[in-house]
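Help needed: design a sequence for this.
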């Protein structure tokens, strides 16, 4: 359920017609619904109300500070993977005590930043990283709260690029070696073992891989407890999928029921790191048709958003729904929706049966709230899109469209080129 809907054949976000946003802010523009964001967050959060838990929104899926503020106001924490994401979270007013930090390549300066901020948990992904965190904490006179990110070796049955919990993936510490890793961690003077964590992949549409991963983690927790290692937190990561087209992912409450049942009497605080399931269908990319053309019988709709704005179709052949902002009775034909970028891979939709769009017409690329703006770039020197948050009948530009000046910010012509 989301708040993008047709009224008299016109697409609206909450109480605002998208046409009005295009008029005011231009295109391409990401548009998010505050109401959908809040509802998705609370549905997920409330699904786990029977157990001790903390929802840490995955910043990588959408890192706009206004969006992060929405979840902070709901009492949520965040999952970060870089110093930059920590900076954003703090700017947004997220409680540092609700921040968990994952990622295989944490730099020393990033670890120090997180220690100074006083985050809840480092999800440590290797023994070397563990030693570096211990040394950093020692230098700063702090104890680093840690969990080891265990790679449980379960198949998430998703796109190979976004599966992370198989033993051949780069993430985490092999579950078989994790007990030994915890023993090593216990001997380090400046780390405090607080939990175990895993994240097995993204856009999962089945519950069973999550349950399998939890079972493996449970086994590990009981082995650790036998050795006197106290585990307070169990972080199950993110990964719950959404409907882009015809997928039928479990509802968060079904997911929660299965997790709660499997957890049984495990005495821990659960941490979840959802991203996509919260923001994916709470945002769209609003774009305008620049041209329509046919090449050798193939129809193309050229729009003003490209792979630099939304790279998911080019990168993963992902499907995003395409909707006209103004619906009218007209013929349909098979077409590709493509951007202005100089690459054949620059497309938003391929071989779709679409209404005969016209020049200057507005189009909504659906389900673009997660991994949309955050993966955008300036390729082809295209200023990045604006972002707008809708709240009832109000709109707010939560990120200005970039300007040409923004494109060259920080660049400089060296003196030896002026000689
Ligand atoms: N926690 C960790 C440690 C992660 O690596 C991820 C996503 C998440 C949580 C959030 O997963 P989610 O609930 O959003 O599935 N760019 C790809 C997705 C990459 C996901 C990477 N990790 C895409 O556009 O589909």
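Sure. Designed sequence:
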């Amino acid at each position: 359920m989301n708040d993008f809907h047709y009224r008299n054949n016109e697409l609206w976000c909450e109480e605002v017609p998208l046409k009005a946003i295009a008029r005011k802010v231009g295109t391409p523009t990401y548009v998010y619904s505050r109401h959908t964001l809040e509802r998705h967050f609370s549905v997920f959060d409330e699904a786990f109300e029977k157990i001790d838990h903390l929802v840490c929104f995955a910043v990588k899926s959408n890192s706009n500070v206004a969006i992060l503020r929405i979840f902070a106001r709901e009492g949520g924490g965040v999952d970060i993977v870089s110093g930059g994401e920590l900076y954003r979270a703090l700017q947004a007013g997220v409680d540092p005590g609700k921040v968990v930090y994952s990622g295989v390549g944490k730099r020393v300066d990033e670890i120090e930043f997180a220690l100074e901020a006083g985050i809840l948990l480092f999800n440590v992904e290797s023994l070397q990283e563990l030693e570096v965190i211990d040394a950093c904490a020692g230098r700063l006179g702090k104890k680093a709260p840690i969990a080891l990110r265990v790679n449980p070796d379960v198949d998430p049955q998703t796109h190979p690029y976004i599966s992370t919990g198989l033993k051949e993936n780069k993430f985490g510490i092999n579950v078989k070696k994790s007990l030994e890793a915890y023993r090593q961690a216990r001997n380090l003077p400046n780390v405090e073992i607080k939990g175990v964590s895993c994240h097995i992949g993204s856009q999962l549409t089945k519950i069973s891989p999550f349950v399998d991963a939890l079972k493996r983690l449970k086994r590990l927790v009981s082995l650790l407890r036998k050795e006197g290692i106290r585990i307070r937190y169990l972080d199950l990561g993110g990964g719950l999928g959404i409907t882009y087209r015809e997928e039928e992912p479990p509802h968060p409450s079904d997911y929660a029921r299965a997790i709660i049942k499997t957890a049984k009497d495990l005495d821990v605080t659960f941490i979840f790191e959802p991203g996509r399931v919260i923001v994916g269908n709470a945002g769209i990319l609003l774009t305008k048709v620049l041209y329509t053309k046919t090449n050798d019988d193939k129809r193309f709709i050229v729009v003003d958003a490209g792979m630099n704005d939304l790279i998911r179709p080019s990168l993963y052949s992902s499907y995003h729904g395409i909707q006209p902002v103004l619906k009218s009775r007209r013929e349909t034909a098979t077409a590709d929706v493509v951007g202005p970028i100089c690459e054949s891979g620059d497309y938003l939709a391929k071989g779709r049966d679409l209404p005969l769009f016209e020049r200057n017409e507005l189009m909504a690329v659906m389900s673009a709230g997660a991994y949309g703006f955050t993966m955008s770039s300036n390729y082809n020197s295209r200023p990045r899109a604006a972002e707008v948050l809708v709240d009832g009948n109000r709109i707010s530009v939560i990120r200005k469209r970039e300007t040409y000046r923004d494109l060259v910010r920080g660049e400089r012509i060296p003196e030896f080129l002026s000689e």
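The domain at 103-272 is CATH 3.20.20.10 (TIM Barrel).
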